[in-house]
Structures are given as structure tokens and as C-alpha cells.
């Protein structure tokens, strides 16, 4: 997996069909990585996302390292003569790349499991909210903060900071189902422990310990998922996400259309034969273009 790793993101394959992604710093490379995993690997069936740092989940968002963003900002003289409305219309071009990177795990065909530990502030909640499953170490502490992104000097004379949300406020009301609690946490930016995160539905499991223990638990889950039909798991992910954003009637109709194609998979017969003969199932690679001879 060395070809997928970069300066700030380490990618390894601790078990067959399971990748471990360890973040040191976040930027658009995060989104590009998940795109690469989806398009350039043959048979990834689950990914565990963790932090490379021992005590915190994220290192924060350093826009000074974001060369692309700096290049898109205007110099002070030109901004002074620009219509504010037109500046406002242009501003989403700066934010959308971040939002698209954050939501990259949701667009993957395979499940992404967040292994969370330590302090999780602002951007960290954005990141884990877009993952399929969230496990938290017992030492994890969360705060739902909107982010104040310091723009390069000269972009605005009157504003030195810009409030922006990268996904937390979109995801959490649907994840937790408790609008009152989400509002309370967002308005106050209070820290809350892993046990509270489990109670509110943000995480599905609290693991005693820290980074080592929660990553191990997440990898165990990923290994189990990797033994299942990748077509079935991928389809289930798609249908659950669709159900979240649509009515029951719309989702049932979508499911019937989806299954008309997906139930023809050879995975069903392979699963039945494997169960009957008491052997591990040997499913075809999820990424069809690589064929049977591909290797990760």
C-alpha cells in the first residue's frame, strides 16, 4: 500500500482486503486518497480510519499548507474594489473542496470505520460523521465546534475569520435523531466523553483504552466485514444512505430496482457453496476492471 501513502497519510494493509488509513494532517489529499482506493485497488472491502497521533484524533486544518487555497485568494488592492456580493458568490469555491474531501468515505463502495481516540475537535467530528461506523476509545472527548478558518492575508479587509461547517451540522441531526441535543452541543461547544457520544448515537461502541485498543477493535470489525459478500455489503451501504435521505416509499422503490440487478450476483451461490462445504468464501474482486488476477 506504499503507493497510496503520502507525506501526511499512511496507508497499510494489516489484513487481506482491509486497509488502515492513519492521518497526520488533513487536506484535499484525504479525499483524493479515498478516490484512489476506490479506483486503483482491486478488492478493498473495508477501511479503518485512525489518527497517527497518540493523544489526539486530528491535527487540525492548516490552511497555510494549502497552496491551492492561497493561489485562489485575491490580493488586498483588488478585493477593496470588488463588489461584496460577487466575492460571496466566489467564496464557495474555497469551501467545496474541503466538503467534498470530508464526504469522500460516503462515496466509497466499501464501509469506512472510524477508530477515534483522544481529543476530537471540530474538523475531527466532521471527518468521523461521514464514516459508516464509529468506534471510540474510552479516552475520547468530543466537541461540536464550527470552524473559524483564517484566510490568507488580504482576502477580506473587514473579516479575518470565516465561519464554516464541513459536515457536522448536516450529518449529526440524522445520526443522532436528537435535534435538541445536537443544538445544545453545537451552541455551547461543550466537551463530552465517549460514553455520551455512544448515548447520543454518534458512536456505536466504546472501547476501553486509547488509540491501540480502538484501532484493534475497528480492525476486528473490518476483518469480519471483509468475509462477507462485497456486493452485498456495498449494496447495503448504498441502500442505508438512500434511506437516510428519502422517504420509506422512495427507498422501497429504489431498493426494488437496485435488487433487480444486484441479486443476480455470483456471490450468492459462492456463499451457499462455502457454507455447505465449510470453507471460506472466495468472492470476486469488487473492482471488476481488475479481474481475477489483480493483487492489492
Annotate the secondary structure layout.
Blueprint: E1 9-15, E2 18-23, H1 28-40, E3 46-51, H2 67-72, H3 76-80, H4 84-90, H5 92-102, H6 104-107, E4 112-116, E5 119-121, H7 123-129, E6 133-137, E7 141-143, E8 147-150, E9 161-164, H8 168-176, H9 179-188, E10 191-193, H10 194-199, E11 205-207, H11 211-226, H12 230-245, H13 248-262, H14 267-277
Parallel strand pairs: 2-3, 3-4, 4-6, 5-7, 6-11
Antiparallel strand pairs: 1-2, 7-10, 8-9
Helix pairs in contact: 1-5, 7-8, 12-13
Protein name: Enoyl-CoA hydratase/isomerase
InterPro entries: ClpP/crotonase-like_dom_sf (IPR029045), Ech1-like (IPR045002), Enoyl-CoA_hydra/iso (IPR001753), Enoyl-CoA_hydra_C (IPR014748)
Keywords: Fatty acid metabolism, Isomerase, Lipid metabolism
Record the strand order, biggest sheet: 1-2-3-4-6-11
Query: Residue ranges: pLDDT <50 for 5 or more in a row?
Result: 63-77, 147-164, 292-296
CATH superfamily of the largest domain: 2-enoyl-CoA Hydratase, Chain A, domain 1
Q: Strand count, sense and closure of the main sheet?
A: 6 strands, mixed
Would you list the SSEs in sequence order as H and E? EEHEHHHHHEEHEEEEHHEHEHHHH
Radius of gyration, rounded? 21 Å
Number of strands: 11
Share of residues in strands: 15-25%
Mean pLDDT: 82
CATH architecture identity of the largest domain:
Alpha-Beta Complex
Portion in helices: 40-55%
Using the alpha-carbon principal axes, give the shape. Answer: globular
Reported by name, the CATH topology of the largest domain is 2-enoyl-CoA Hydratase, Chain A, domain 1
CATH class of the largest domain: Alpha Beta
The total count of helices amounts to 14
Distance between the termini: 7 Å
Amino acid at each position: 500500500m506504499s503507493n497510496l501513502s503520502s507525506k501526511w497519510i499512511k496507508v497499510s494493509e494489516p489484513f487481506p482486503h482491509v486497509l488502515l488509513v492513519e492521518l497526520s494532517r488533513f487536506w484535499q489529499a484525504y479525499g483524493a486518497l479515498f478516490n484512489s482506493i476506490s479506483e486503483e485497488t482491486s478488492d478493498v472491502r473495508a477501511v479503518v480510519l485512525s489518527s497517527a497521533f497518540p493523544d489526539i484524533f486530528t491535527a487540525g486544518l492548516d490552511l497555510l499548507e494549502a497552496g491551492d487555497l492561497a493561489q485562489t485568494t485575491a490580493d488586498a488592492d483588488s478585493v477593496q474594489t470588488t463588489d461584496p456580493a460577487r466575492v460571496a458568490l466566489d467564496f464557495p469555491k474555497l469551501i467545496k473542496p474541503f466538503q467534498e474531501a470530508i464526504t469522500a468515505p460516503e462515496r466509497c463502495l466499501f464501509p469506512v470505520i472510524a477508530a477515534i481516540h483522544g481529543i476530537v475537535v471540530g474538523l475531527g467530528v466532521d471527518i468521523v460523521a461521514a464514516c459508516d461506523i464509529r468506534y471510540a476509545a474510552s479516552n475520547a472527548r468530543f466537541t461540536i465546534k464550527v470552524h473559524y478558518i483564517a484566510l490568507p492575508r488580504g482576502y477580506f479587509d473587514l473579516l479575518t475569520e470565516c465561519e464554516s461547517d464541513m459536515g457536522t451540522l448536516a450529518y449529526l441531526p440524522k445520526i443522532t435523531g436528537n435535534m435538541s441535543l445536537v443544538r445544545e452541543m453545537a451552541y455551547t461547544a461543550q466537551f463530552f466523553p465517549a460514553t455520551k457520544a455512544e448515548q447520543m448515537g454518534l458512536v456505536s461502541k466504546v472501547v476501553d483504552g486509547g488509540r491501540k485498543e480502538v484501532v484493534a477493535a475497528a480492525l476486528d470489525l473490518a476483518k469480519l466485514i471483509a468475509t462477507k459478500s462485497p456486493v452485498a455489503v456495498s449494496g447495503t451501504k448504498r441502500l442505508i444512505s438512500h434511506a437516510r435521505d428519502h422517504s420509506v416509499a422512495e427507498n422501497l422503490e429504489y431498493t426494488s430496482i437496485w435488487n433487480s440487478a444486484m441479486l443476480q450476483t455470483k456471490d450468492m451461490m459462492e456463499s451457499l457453496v462455502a457454507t455447505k462445504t465449510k470453507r471460506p468464501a472466495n468472492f470476486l474482486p469488487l473492482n471488476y476492471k481488475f479481474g481475477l488476477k489483480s493483487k492489492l
